[in-house]
């Protein structure tokens, strides 16, 4: 097991057996500033490159998953553009990861935290968490958070959430298919591990298949078929000498 102690870093990482756990650790709400966005991207990219890691669980320390952007800190820093660039790089990387991502949502996932959750493949959430964008309640719009959100949330529900800033309950999220499972908080870690084991069933094929799955939504039908044809040819061709 490798550990990066949480006291001095906004992101703590540990690897146990073949599952990595990436824990947001900027209490109390793990708000994302520029440094945290950079560290999240770097940590996920590093874990994705490790042959010994088959799945990545993303979670938060304590009772909150992530409350979104640290708006006050970003405005005070005068670095709005570098912050937005860092978040955009993080969100752009997520669908390209060759390693499955499991969100273990231990508490509220709001604004950018909801976007991060929605960019994961499997979402298991603790009972009672609030899930959704909430920027509208503060006179803002979830510009980046809505990008992964509208790919996971049914369109009408996503628009209503963005317009009102009213989060979903866990029951609503489960009914809408936004999350895969709702469990008591005490069972969250164990169920996240179960899901991490389950998403490795395809073995090494995931490295090709997961990015292809997400790319297929962005391509025309013909382009997606052609890309899949090339992938299928590589899969059934003998190894290069």
Account of the 3D structure:
- The strands form 2 sheets. This protein has a 6-stranded mixed β-sheet, with helices on both faces. It has a 3-stranded parallel β-sheet with strand order 4-6-8.
- It has helices spanning about 35-50, 70-75, 80-95, 110-120, 145-150, 155-165, 170-175, 190-200, 205-215, 220-235; strands spanning about 10-15, 20-25, 55-60, 65, 100-105, 110, 120-125, 130, 180-185.
- With about 240 residues, the protein is of the alpha/beta class.
- The protein has 10 helices and 9 strands.
- Mean pLDDT is about 95; it is low at about 1-5.
- Helix 1 links the parallel strand 2 (about 20-25) and strand 3 (about 55-60).
List keywords for this structure.
241 residues; 2-enoyl-CoA Hydratase, Chain A, domain 1; 6-stranded mixed β-sheet; 10 helices; 16% strand; disordered N terminus
Unreliable stretches: 1-7
CATH architecture of the largest domain: Alpha-Beta Complex
Helical content, roughly? 40-55%
The level-1 CATH class of the largest domain: Alpha Beta
Which word captures the global form? globular
Structural class, by secondary structure, is alpha/beta
Helix count from the secondary structure assignment: 10
Q: Oligomeric state of the chains?
A: single chain
By CATH, the superfamily of the largest domain comes out as: 2-enoyl-CoA Hydratase, Chain A, domain 1
- Going across the biggest sheet, name each strand in turn: 1-2-3-5-7-9
Q: What's the end-to-end separation, in Å?
A: 35 Å
CATH topology of the largest domain, by name, is 2-enoyl-CoA Hydratase, Chain A, domain 1
Please, how many domains?
2
């Amino acid at each position: 097991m490798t550990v990066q102690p949480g006291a001095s870093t906004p992101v703590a990482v540990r690897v146990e057996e073949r599952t990595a756990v990436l824990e947001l650790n900027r209490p109390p709400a793990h708000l994302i500033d520029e440094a945290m966005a950079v560290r999240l991207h770097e940590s996920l990219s590093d874990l994705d490159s490790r042959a010994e890691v088959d799945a990545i669980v993303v979670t938060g320390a304590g009772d909150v998953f992530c409350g979104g952007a640290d708006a006050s800190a970003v405005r005070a820093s005068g670095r709005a553009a570098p912050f937005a660039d860092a978040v955009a790089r993080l969100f752009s990387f997520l669908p390209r990861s060759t390693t499955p991502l499991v969100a273990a949502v231990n508490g509220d996932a709001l604004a950018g935290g909801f976007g991060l959750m929605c960019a994961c493949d499997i979402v298991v959430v603790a009972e009672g968490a609030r899930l959704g964008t909430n920027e509208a309640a503060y006179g803002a719009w979830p510009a980046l958070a809505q990008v992964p959100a509208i790919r996971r949330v049914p369109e009408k529900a996503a628009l209503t959430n963005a317009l009102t800033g009213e989060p979903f309950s866990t029951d609503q999220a489960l009914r809408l298919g936004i999350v895969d499972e709702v469990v008591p908080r005490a069972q969250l870690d164990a169920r996240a591990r179960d899901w991490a084991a389950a998403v490795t069933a395809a073995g090494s094929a995931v490295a090709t298949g997961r990015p292809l799955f997400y790319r297929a939504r962005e391509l025309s039908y013909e382009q997606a078929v052609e890309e899949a044809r090339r992938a299928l040819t590589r899969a059934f061709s003998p190894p290069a000498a």
